[in-house]
Amino acid sequence: MKAMVFAAGYGTRLRPLTDQLPKAMIPVAGRPMIEYPLRLLRHYGITEIIINLHHLGEKIEEHLGDGRKLGLRIAYSKEKELLDTGGGLLQARSFLQDETFVVINNDVIIDLRLQTAIDQHRQHGPVATLVLRPDLQADRYGALEISADGKVQKFLSHQGPLRAASGPLRKLMFTGVQILEPKIFDYMTGENPGPFGTTKVTYPKMLTAGEKLCGFLYDGFWQDLGTPQGIKEVEAKLSSGAAKLHYLDD
Questions:
Q1: What is the pTM of this model?
Q2: Which CB contacts under 8 angstroms, 24+ apart, belong to 229-234?
Q3: SS3 137
Q4: Can you tell me the distance from the alpha carbon of 100 to that of 128, in angstroms, rounded to the nearest whole number?
Q5: Segment 201-211 mean pLDDT
Q6: Nearest C-alpha neighbor of 130 from the set 23, 225, 222, 212
Q7: FRET pair for 34, CA 20 to 30 Å: which of 58, 106, 172, 234?
Q8: What confidence category does residue 115 fall into, taking pLDDT thresholds of 50, 70 and 90?
């Protein structure tokens, strides 16, 4: 299995830190932010990884190189313009299109048992499994709603066929981790070249077409690293032992 880590963004919420460093290289508890998703993937035997680059991307490539020092094989997808999640994924199609793959946002930290999510994905057979978490502010930031059988029935303002729903829907938030089948690229054909998002364009298109999307419910430790406050919070939790990441023991 291969994976992609999104690391091309400007990190505007972390300015002025990201004026000189790409967001992926901002230190978090003694290591660059991007090493957390990379170490999570490595822990589960996923060593072939592509990273998209744009803002100060050469500094990410300089630090990670070909990935050998982390026991990985890293390739890079360099974006002349920032392509957003959908455009970035589409540009990396040739690397990912042969089998099931994992995509992780660079700016989240999560203690996910990734193999359990992969096993559920394979058992249920959707095109996409999104790792989702409960959050009281889900409506504020953009809720996804799943039925009791784990199928995504509502994605932001877009609604799929509800005939498969059993019982009430549950509102959850996306963690930034997803397991995908190459079929997702079928829903990207015909897009105009340039930036587009999976959450705003691709997934709503899939949902309204009746494509099977599933959610994996996760209620463990998770933190957004996109702000200075988020980084301070996770550093405090890790140093105090209030949070632990199982994959750092490798």
A1: 0.90
A2: 231/26, 231/28, 234/28, 234/29, 234/109
A3: coil
A4: 9
A5: 88
A6: 212
A7: 172
A8: very high
pLDDT in tens, 58-86: 999 999 999 999 999 999 999 999 899 99
**Whole-angstrom Cα distance, residue 227 to residue 230?**
5
Angle formed at CA 174 by CA 173 and CA 175, multiple of 5 degrees: 115
- Nearest CA among 104, 79, 101, 241 for reference residue 182: 101
Which of the pair, 122 or 155, is modelled with greater confidence? 122
DSSP-assigned beta bridge partners for residue 2: 48, 101
Q: Contact, 51 vs 2, CB < 8 A?
A: no
* Distance (Å, whole) CA 36 – CA 42: 10
DSSP string, 28-91: ETTEETTHHHHHHHHHTT--EEEEEE-TTHHHHHHHHTTSGGGT-EEEEEE-SS--HHHHHHHH
134-160: per-residue pLDDT in tens?
Answer: 987 766 666 788 888 888 888 766 666
